[in-house]
Amino acid sequence: MNSLWFLDDVNLFKVLCPHKFKSYKQKHSHDFHHYKKKDYIYFEEDHANKVYLIDKGKVKLGYHTEEGEEVIKAILSRGELFGEKAILGEEKRNEFAQSIDNATSICPVPVNTMHELMRDNQTFSLKIYKFIGLRFKKLERRLQLLLFKDTKTRLLEFLDELCEEYGYCCEKTGDMVIANPYTQKDIASLIGTSRSTLNILMNELKEDSIINFNRKEIRILKNIA
Fold first, then answer.
1. Over the stretch 106-148, which tens digit does the pLDDT of each residue have?
2. How many degrees, rounded to 5, is the angle at CA 206 between CA 180 and CA 154?
3. Which secondary structure element, helix H or strand E, spans residue 159, and what is its range?
4. CA distances from 156 to 21, 133, 149, 202 (A)
5. Cα separations (Å) of 56 from 18, 35, 77, 100, 101?
6. By C-alpha distance, which of 224, 210, 223, 221 is closest to 177?
7. Quick one: which of 35, 83, 184, 218 is 20 to 30 A from 173 by CA?
8. Parts of the chain belonging to CATH 1.10.10.10
């Protein structure tokens, strides 16, 4: 099975001219890799020789503290790329990548293949570096939130971020609906708090008619959206 259509889906290969696109498909055909929930795509300290694109499912990126505590950096879904620091010369992973879906499908692309494509097409290369820059900027913003904002503000800004990435407007009510890809444990880790504190804050926001939520979705209510 060829994977180039998937790269096109995240707008990385749309900059390549058709004849290069066609020749690449003929030269680099390979299968997708499939994972079940809790399967690891790679571990911390693994050799970094590939980048990965998500065909379907969700992938959690994180690391473990010296005390063995898990810290989640991001949860990614279809069309997103990870392991990209290998392009910049990272030799060993400083994070783990784990499937959190029972039917996750991943397209692995060797780093030397990415370098070849970047060398042959400057526009494609610029798009890759722009993507990496945006990913670093997002992580930097999250770090600033952890360092300088109180827990409630971190939660509200995280909900805003979820709205931008996953939200849509409910025509019937006018609420912003987030098809939530995170568990409460995930959200607590991402904003640097405990699950019990998060639960208290979520319920406070619910009592104040700012949000409503269940296991499948979070609603930012119309009166504050």
1. 988 889 888 887 887 787 788 888 888 887 887 777 777 777 7
2. 65
3. helix 151-166
4. 43, 24, 11, 10
5. 26, 10, 7, 11, 9
6. 221
7. 184
8. 149-220
Domain 149-220, CATH class in plain words: mainly alpha
Residue whose token pair is 């020749």: 23
pLDDT at residue 17 in the model: 41
Residues of the chain with CATH 2.60.120.10: 4-147
Joined together, the tokens standing for residue 107 give 């397209």
> What is residue 82's three-state secondary structure?
strand
Q: Which residue has the tokens 């690449």?
A: 24
Token pair of 209 as six digits: 């008619």
- Whole-structure pTM value: 0.71
> Cα separation of 186 and 133, whole Å?
24
Give the residue from 60, 127, 114 showing the smallest Cα distance to 88: 114
Q: Provide the CATH number for the domain formed by 4-147 in this structure.
A: 2.60.120.10
Give pLDDT tens digits for 49-86. Answer: 999 988 888 899 988 888 888 888 888 888 788 999 99
pLDDT per residue over 9-51, tens digit each? 454 544 444 344 455 555 665 578 999 999 999 999 999 999 9
